[in-house]
Amino acid sequence: MVSPLKRYSPRKSGPACLPGNPAEETLVRRFFVEKIPAEEGSVTIAGSEARHITRVLRMGPGDRFVLLDRRGLRFQVVIRSTEQGVVTVFLERPLPSPPASPVQLFIGQAVLKSGAMDLVIQKTTELGVNTIHPFISQRTVVRPREDKRAKRVKRWQDIAIAASKQSDRSRPPEITAVTTFTELLQRPFPEETLKIILWEEEEGRDLKSTLRSTLDRSKAVLALVGPEGGFAPGEISRAQEAGFRPVSLGPQILRAETAAIALGAVINYESFTPKRKDT
Asked: What's the pTM?
């Protein structure tokens, strides 16, 4: 019996592949679903992803792309049909996931104004953060109402998914519900987690030296980044009592969103070990 996949052949050019040798087509389109039912052999895609596939990219039966899910699964898929706003694809073959960082990164970010917070979510996702914990602190300017917080988190999750596809992450980061600074200090984290809190007034300990002296023993980093007005001195004291080390990013006073992105970039750089090619 002929497999249904044989009914479709890849297009030799078009939105699903880069120009070049058709025999070595590179799949450059990545789309996301919450869960890929690998055992079923096919997936239906609806909503914004289906609209992007059909209306923006004008892809159709026979086109191939990469499908990702929240668990880190990824498959090469081929479109079977596009009907009534739903895209049905066949799972052709599993694909290997990109290598993960050897160090887990958790960022506690005080809620910022909309544009700045969106930027933090996008860029820290690109830099490989595993979990983002939004929180309300003493000097937080934007304090979403209880009934609006779930909608705000959903928006951040959508931004994280888009950034994950663009940066070819194995899975998007988890974004937890908005909490308070006190509650975040009390949450359990993996053993041997390096806990740091960014503080512009810290003079004796910088981020680089702290990472280089502890990353070989720590498998995770939990870093707290304050709001537009920074942390209050009392919050720094409470964080220290909870095991956090105040660290500085340097002599400059950075905007809150810049601090979070710089933090992610430095930790990503310090923990990354490139693979050596055999010579």
From this structure: 0.82
